[in-house]
Amino acid sequence: xxxxxxxxxxxxxxxxxxxxxxxxxxxxxxxxxxxxxxxxxxxxxxxxxxxxxxxxxxxxxxxxxxxxxxxxxxxxxxxxxxxxxxxxxxxxxxxxxxxxxxxxxxxxxxxxxxxxxxxxxxxxxxxxxxxxxxxxxxxxxxxxxxxxxxxxxxxxxxxxxxxxxxxxxxxxxxxxxxxxxxxxxxxxxxxxxxxxxxxxxxxxxxxxxxxxxxxxxxxxxxxxxxxxxxxxxxxxxxxxxxxxxxxxxxxxxxxxxxxxxxxxxxxxxxxxxxxxxxxxxxxxxxxxxxxxxxxxxxxxxxxxxxxxxxxxxxxxxxxxxxxxxxxxxxxxxxxxxxxxxxxxxxxxxxxxxxxxxxxxxxxxxxxxxxxxxxxxxxxxxxxxxxxxxxxxxxxxxxxxxxxxxxxxxxxxxxxxxxxxxxxxxxxxxxxxxxxxxxxxxxxxxxxxxxxxxxxxxxxxxxxxxxxxxxxxxxxxxxxxxxxxxxxxxxxxxxxxxxxxxxxxxxxxxxxxxxxxxxxxxxxxxxxxxxxxxxxxxxxxxxxxxxxxxxxxxxxxxxxxxxxxxxxxxxxxxxxxxxxxxxxxxxxxxxxxxxxxxxxxxxxxxxxxxxxxxxxxxxxxxxxxxxxxxxxxxxxxxxxxxxxxxxxxxxxxxxx
Length: 655
Prior knowledge:
Radius of gyration: 59 Å
Oligomer: single chain
Shape: elongated
Number of helices: 20
C-alpha cells in the first residue's frame, strides 16, 4: 500500500473514533444534565409552584379582608359588637389568629365580597363562631373599643401580608435560580451539540474527499488494468481479450487483420541516449501509431518493449489493408525530433487474417509472430503476411534450437580455420577460427544457427567452447611446430557483456598455457552500444593480459569513430560487404581506401576479409592494406588441414 494511502486511512480511523467518542460523551452529558434538571424541577413542580398558587389565593383573601376591615372601620360599630370585642380580649384574638395561620398553606377563603361597595355580606363559619357575631351584628359595631380591635386585627393582617410577601419572594428566587441553572445546562448542551456538529461536518468533508480520491484511484487502477502505463495504449491482456471477442461477433462483421510490429533497432536509441530518452521516444511513436492506425479504423495495443499490435477490420489481402499499412509505415519513417535529436525509425510487421489463418487468439498470435520474425530476418522495415510455409520454418527453427542446446555435449561443434595472409611478404600471419556444426554428418551453415544462438542466449556457452578450443589448438600447434601461430576468435556482444567473461578467459589461458599474444579477439562495434565506458575498461584489461584485439566488420556499425581512438585495439577488419564490389562501385572503393588510411593514421593494422579475386587482392595491395583473408588465399580448413598448411608455409620459408 502506498504510504499516503496508509496515512489517509489512519486519519479516517482517528476521525471516526473521535466522532464516536464525541457522540458518546454528548449523550452522557445530555443524560447527566437532564437528570440534574429533573432533580431541580421535582421540588419546583411538587412544592414551590403549588405554594406560589396558594400564596396568591391567600394574598387575594388577605387583600379582600383588609379592604373589608378598612371599610368597616369607617362605619359605625354597634354597642353589642363592641361589648363582644371587649369580652374577647387581646389574648383571645391572638389565639384566634394563631389558629388561622396554620391553615394559610391550604389557602382558606375567610370571607367573600359579594357587592361593589366592598361590604362584608358573609363570613366563614369558623370566623363567625370565634368572634361570636351574628348576621345582624355586622352593621352595629360602632364603639371605640371595636375600632381599636379592628385596628389591631388590621395590623396583624398587614404583618401576615408581609410574611406572605417574603414567602412569595423566596418562591420567585427559587424559580429564578432554577431557571438560571436550567439555562446554563441547556447552553452547555447546545455548545456540545455545536462542537459535535463541527466535528461531524469535518469528518464528513474528509470522508467525502477520501471517497472521491478513492474513486479516482480506482478509476486509474481500472484504466491501468487494461492499459500500458507509459504510452496509455491498451496492453497485451487487453489485446488478447479483444481477440476473444472476434469469435463472438456475427459473421457479417467480416474478416480482421492481426498485425504484430516492432520498432527496428530501438535498442540503438536506448544505448545511445538512455532508457529515459527511449521512453520519451516511445511515447511519441505510440501517438503516431495510434493516430495513423485510427485513420484506417485500426486499434493499437502495446505488447512489451518496442512491440505493438494492431487490429484492423479488413482482411490482409484487401486494398484497404495495404493502404493502411503503407500509411502506418510512412508515418513511422518520418524523422522524430526529441530534445533536439532527430530520430529515424522503421517498422517490421507480421500479419495474419481472422478467420483465415486462425480463429483462436493463440493461433492468430502464433501465426502473426511467425510472419513478424520473417520480416525481422529479412532485415526489417518490411511487412510479411503469414503463409503456411512460415509455420514449417518456425517449427524447424524450434527443433533446431532444441538440437543446438545439446550440440556441445554431443560433440557436434567444431572449428575450421581460415588462413590470413600478409600482403607485404605473402606469408601466413594467422587463422580465423570459424564455428561449424556437424549434425548427422552434415555441416549446418553458420547463417542458419548463429543468429538463433544469439537470440536464444546459447551463444554464451557456445562462445565459451570456442575460446577453449581455439586456445587449446593454438597451444597445440605451437608445441608441434615450434611456431607461434595467431588464432583470431570472434566474440559476440552478448558473450562480451556476459558476467564472468574475463574470469573464464583468464582460466582458459592458464589451463592451456597458450601465449596470450597468439590469441586475437575480434569484437564488433555493437559492444559499445549498452555501456561504452565499461567496454573500454574491459578491453584495456584484455590488452593487459597480452591478448590482441581487433574490430570486426568495421564500417557496418554506428558510432565507431566516436570511440575508435579510445579503444585499445591492434587491428581493423574491413567488412566483406565493402570489399566484394569495390572494383565496380566507386563509393565502396572510396570507403575501403579511407578505412585503410584511417587505420594507419591510428597506428593500427588493417585486414580486409572476403577477398575472392586476384583483382581485389591487387587493389588492396596498391592501397597498402596490411593483410587479407578470403578464398583468394585459402578457404576455411579443418584443424588437421590447417596444421599441414602451417607446415607447408614453414617449408616454403625455409626454402
